[in-house]
């Protein structure tokens, strides 16, 4: 069987996008890393939020080997993934006004913390209000989104604004409207989305920048090790005990 031409094209497209965000978003990535390092060093907490498939990149930095132990998932039931039935309910919840405020009010997030809000389009009420409300509470907000949507679509929020309009720092994933890299004659819909690959890479790059900043300040980054290597379980236990008042996925 010969190699797939389309599979190779997808890898090329994804690599091209990764190279773009590496080169064009380096300043924003460094700024995001500095904001996270500031919060860690000052006793603050870290949160990540995303709805639908944008939640995948948020989950990817929570309680994982090589990740910051202080990163907590700000989860809203029904919006975290496709496990909700029907799956379309998750999309509907992203358009509900007021939901973000209610979630933040009942969360442990407080002034001085950092919240990373991930939304590919950045046009729905939920991510926009999440950023708005978080900033009003005194959190620093990092948005990971595709600026192309703000330039080429209309907001679904009553303000007419997008996620990018309510963040302290914005990381642009460069994903084109529609989130599909490939087309082929005989297939009506475009396919092969790359947003998860690129957004997850941005999240990991941000974490790496934060670790670098902390070391430069003489602070050991509170990183987790793999529990599947010798000593990993003991290491993680020590980190979680030391930072237990800033870790909420254990409770």
UniProtKB/TrEMBL annotation:
GO BP terms, alphabetized: carbohydrate derivative metabolic process
InterPro entries: RpiR-like_SIS, SIS_dom, SIS_dom_sf, SIS_GmhA/DiaA_subfam, UPF0309
UniProt KW Ligase keyword: no
Every SIS domain range: 36-221
Keyword tags: Isomerase
Top-level taxon of origin: Bacteria
Single GO term (MF): carbohydrate derivative binding
SUPFAM superfamilies: SIS domain
Similarity section: Belongs to the UPF0309 family.
HAMAP family named among the record's database cross-references: UPF0309
Stated name of the protein: UPF0309 protein SAMN02787144_1007234
């Amino acid at each position: 069987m010969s190699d797939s031409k389309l599979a190779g094209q997808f890898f090329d497209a994804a690599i091209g996008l990764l190279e773009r965000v590496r080169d064009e978003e380096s300043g924003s990535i460094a700024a995001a890393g500095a904001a996270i390092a500031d919060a860690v060093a000052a006793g603050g907490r870290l949160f990540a939020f995303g709805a639908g498939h944008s939640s995948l990149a948020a989950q990817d930095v929570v309680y994982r080997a090589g990740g910051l132990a202080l990163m907590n998932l700000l989860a809203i039931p029904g919006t975290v993934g496709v496990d909700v039935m029907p799956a379309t309910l998750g999309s509907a919840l992203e358009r509900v006004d007021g939901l973000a405020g209610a979630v933040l009010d009942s969360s442990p997030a407080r002034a001085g913390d950092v919240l990373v809000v991930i939304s590919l389009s950045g046009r729905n009420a939920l991510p926009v209000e999440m950023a708005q409300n978080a900033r009003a509470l005194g959190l620093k907000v990092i948005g990971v989104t595709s600026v192309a949507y703000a330039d080429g679509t209309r907001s679904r929020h009553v303000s007419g604004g997008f996620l990018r309009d309510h963040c302290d720092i914005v990381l642009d994933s460069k994903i084109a409207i529609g989130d599909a890299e490939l087309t082929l004659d005989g297939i009506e819909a475009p396919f092969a989305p790359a947003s998860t690959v690129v957004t997850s890479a941005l999240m990991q790059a941000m974490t790496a920048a934060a670790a670098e900043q902390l070391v430069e300040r003489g602070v050991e980054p509170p990183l987790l090790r793999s529990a599947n290597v010798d000593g990993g379980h003991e290491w993680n236990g020590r980190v979680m005990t030391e930072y237990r008042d800033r870790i909420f996925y254990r409770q």
